[in-house]
Amino acid sequence: MTKISLPVNSPMLSADFTYGVATASFQIEGGAEHRLASIWDRFCATEGKIADGSNGEVACDHFNLWRQDIELIESLGVDAYRLSISWPRVITREGTLNQAGVDFYLGILDDLERKNIKAFVTLYHWDLPQHLEDNGGWLNRETAYLFRDYVDLITKAFGDRVYAYATLNEPFCSAYLGYEVGVHAPGIVGKEYGKKAAHHLLLAHGLAMQVLAKNSPDTLNGIVLNFTPCYPASNSSEDKGAAHFADDYFNQWYIKPLFDGEYPEILSQLPKAHHPDIHQGDMAIIAQPMDFLGVNYYTRAIYRADKQQDFVELPALEPRTDIGWEIYPKALTKLLVSLNEKYSLPPLYITENGAAMADELKDGSVNDLDRIDYYQSHLSAVHDAIGQGVDIRGYFAWSLMDNFEWAEGYLKRFGIVYVDYASQQRTVKASGNAYKNFISSRVAKK
Ligand code: IFM
Prior knowledge:
Layout: E1 18-22, H1 25-28, H2 39-44, H3 62-75, E2 80-84, H4 87-90, H5 99-114, E3 118-124, H6 130-133, H7 142-158, E4 164-169, H8 171-179, H9 191-215, E5 220-227, E6 230-232, H10 237-260, H11 282-286, E7 292-297, E8 301-304, E9 312-313, H12 330-342, E10 348-352, H13 369-387, E11 392-398, E12 417-420, E13 425-428, H14 430-445
Parallel strand pairs: 1-2, 1-11, 2-3, 3-4, 4-5, 5-7, 6-8, 7-10, 10-11
Antiparallel strand pairs: 8-9, 12-13
Helix pairs in contact: 3-5, 7-9, 8-9, 12-13, 13-14
The structure holds 5-hydroxymethyl-3,4-dihydroxypiperidine (IFM).
5-hydroxymethyl-3,4-dihydroxypiperidine is lined by residues 24, 27, 170, 296, 352, 398, 405, 414.
């Protein structure tokens, strides 16, 4: 497939449906010498944690190349750019603003505004200042209040330059991958830690939402959650039960408190030692009204029951992307429809969707037809969900360009733009051109 298209009557072809590209600070910026250390710097420096032994010191050198990168974004014809702010770049150890770090983002935000590109700003995409981790990180309740203070300062500094704020990106990843299985920074392992960290992250979100309502009432304020829908391996009630438990543990755990003010019922089945430390009033703080919910989707997972554990995940089925994730667009439609049925949702944005593919730069181009296929099938899945009554207002491709893919280092490429890390040369892939042509066909229609 070389083109992306949708039925001519699709609401996703209307001019007010937002299309964007997304990145995150640690994954692209580099410029590490101009900021404080984050937990990802420490994690990268720990032997064996990153597949290729790399780090984020230079990454895509966006810290120096941001002007040309924003020109690149403009050249794709997108309506919006989703970026994240590096907390350790903008806040000093003393908790005051680091003006040089703030100026870096002001330059970007002003440039976006000049180019008429909406800024979707994520306030936390996993790069916690290391000195806060030294004090307990997300296991320390105090971190939620320090996040609130950072959000207060930075939103005042940004003024009216931002279109939408997301408090957190994928708190599941910060909590579970970072504090329960330890495959992400800070690398802490223990079932007793995951839900405690998750609670403090959600509390941080609620406190930040209160600040946003005060400092930035005109922006769209919300959160970005990732979902990996859980399917049973068979029709047996045991396997269905296992998939249901996994869904509560990995997915509903992060959304139910936001809309229902409570954790899923499996809380009562977890050992007391694994419970979060919930203080009186916390759940009400967490359940703040939101202007939007960001949904990140990549794949699904299949579970079977087990005598010893709550569930066992089966190996991903074919077809798979280069990172080993099954390509299963149907689950995206089903997810969006089921979230819409379960909760009283604000408008949704698909804030991340995309695929790592084994790209090859040949004669100056990357012919990633497999990625175009992925985008086609997933954009169609979003179209189907809208057809079933879900209010979805936008879609962001992950990612603008190849970048530091966390524990995989630079080995996995998610970009619609290829990055040669030695020369820092950017090359728009066939998927980038297909996305651009798809977006511009829509504009031509309006
Ligand atoms: O690269 C990440 C991103 O930082 C968060 N969501 C998933 C992407 C792909 O793994």
